[in-house]
Design brief:
2 domains; 3-stranded antiparallel beta sheet; Rossmann fold; alpha/beta
Length: about 160
């Protein structure tokens, strides 16, 4: 079996010779530039945080992760570029910590985009604590739900 990989301008062509057959595949890149975002994930459950981080990285974004408000604020106070905050509302160290964090984050970085997540019911009282113009994704969420939320969030 023989392989060839050819770069032709904005296309990538893979050719595989298999016995008497020939298999060819071509990938054409249509976008001039793909803009990837830096997402700060704040989640106290390590399994959920790692799962979200893995999915978001698979889409080409860069992630930073924190398990609590203080750790997240250290990123937000730094010179590190951050496009969006994805935070759990209920954190073990602070009930409604994600809502409080989002308000502090917006005070530090007014253009930051915010997406909340929770496994609890989203009440009107809770929504009143959200940063204006933000959304909340209920747990458990699927990869497609998370991807759709981030696509909308980053396109805004």
């Amino acid at each position: 079996m023989s392989h060839a990989l050819i770069a032709a301008g904005r296309a990538l062509i893979a050719v595989i010779l298999a016995g008497r057959g020939l298999i060819a595949a071509m990938l054409v890149v249509t976008a001039e530039r793909v803009v990837m975002a830096v997402i700060l994930i704040v989640e106290d459950d390590v399994f959920i945080r790692d799962f979200a981080e893995m999915m978001i990285q698979d889409w080409g974004h860069r992630t930073l992760s924190a398990s609590d408000v203080d750790e997240a604020l250290s990123f937000l106070r730094s010179s590190q570029h951050i496009d969006a905050l994805f935070t759990d509302i209920y954190l073990k160290t602070a009930v409604h910590g994600g809502c409080e964090l989002a308000h502090q984050a917006i005070a530090l970085r007014p253009k930051l985009r915010v997406l909340y997540t929770t496994a609890n019911a989203i009440t009107e009282k809770m929504r009143a604590m959200f940063v204006e113009g933000t959304q909340c994704l209920r747990k458990p969420y699927t990869q497609h739900q998370l991807q759709d939320c981030f696509a909308a969030l980053l396109a805004a």
